[in-house]
Design a protein that fits this description.
A hairpin with a 2-residue loop joins strand 2 (41-46) and strand 3. The protein has 185 residues and is of the alpha/beta class. It has helices at 15-32, 57-75, 120-140; strands at 5-13, 41-46, 49-54, 79-88, 94-104, 148-156, 179-182. Strands 6-4-5-1-7 form a five-stranded mixed sheet. The chain has a two-stranded antiparallel ribbon with strand order 2-3. The longest helix is centred in the C-terminal third of the chain and has 21 residues, at 120-140. Helix 1 (15-32) packs parallel to helix 3 (120-140). It has three helices and seven strands, in the order E-H-E-E-H-E-E-H-E-E.
Length: 185
C-alpha cells in the first residue's frame, strides 16, 4: 500500500488574495497529481507568476461557486482552514489531504484589512512560495496509479451561515496511518 500523506500550508493575506491563493493551489495540485489530464490545463500569468489553470468548463464553474462562498465567509472572518482531499475514484478512500491554514490580515481593531493593502511584489513572492511548496511536496509523494477525484472541505466557525442545499457537514476525511508534513508560507 502506498504511503498516504497530509500536507499543511499557510495562506496569509486579504480575503481576495487568500481566495486567489487557494484557487492557484487547487489547480496546481490537481495538475501536479494528475487528477485531471494535463491537456485540461493552460498556463496563465497572474501576479507576475505563471500558474496552471484548468480549462474544463464544469470544473471552472464548480471551483468558482465554491470560491465565491469561501470569499464570503472570509469577509466575515468565518474560515479557519481549507482542505483539498484527493480520493480514490473507485473506493472513495482518502489518498492525500492538503490542509491550508487561513490567516486573514486584520487591523488592531479586528477589522479585515482591505484587499489593496499588500504590495504586488509581496503577493508575487507569496504565490511563488506556495506553488514551490506544492511542487516540492509532490516530488516526495508516491505516484498514484488509480483514478482520483477530489473534495474541498471548508472549516468555519460555528456561527457561520451555511447555505443548506449547497453545503453539507462531512467527516474530516482523515487518512489512516498518515504521515504529515508542515509547510509554511
Amino acid at each position: 500500500m502506498q504511503s498516504q500523506k497530509s500536507k499543511q500550508i499557510s495562506l496569509k493575506g486579504s480575503t481576495a488574495i487568500v481566495t486567489d491563493f487557494f484557487k492557484f493551489a487547487i489547480n496546481t495540485i490537481l495538475y501536479q497529481r494528475g487528477v485531471y489530464p494535463a491537456d485540461d490545463f493552460h498556463m496563465v500569468k497572474k501576479y507576475g507568476q505563471t500558474v496552471m489553470l484548468t480549462e474544463d468548463a464544469a470544473l471552472v464553474n464548480y471551483l468558482d461557486k465554491i470560491l465565491t462562498q469561501v470569499n464570503e465567509w472570509l469577509l466575515k472572518g468565518d474560515v479557519t482552514q481549507l482542505v483539498l482531499v484527493l480520493l480514490s475514484k473507485d473506493s472513495r478512500t482518502p489518498l492525500e489531504r492538503w490542509v491550508f491554514d487561513i490567516e486573514v490580515l486584520r487591523s488592531e481593531g479586528d477589522q479585515i484589512i482591505p484587499d489593496d493593502s499588500k504590495p504586488d511584489a509581496e503577493i508575487q513572492k507569496e504565490i511563488r512560495h506556495i506553488i514551490k511548496q506544492i511542487v516540492a511536496s509532490v516530488t516526495f509523494l508516491p505516484l498514484v496509479y488509480e483514478p482520483m477525484v477530489f473534495n474541498i472541505l471548508v472549516y468555519t466557525r460555528d456561527s457561520a451561515e451555511v447555505p443548506g442545499k449547497e453545503w453539507l457537514d462531512t467527516d474530516p476525511m482523515a487518512i489512516e496511518a498518515s504521515m504529515s508534513q508542515q509547510v509554511r508560507c
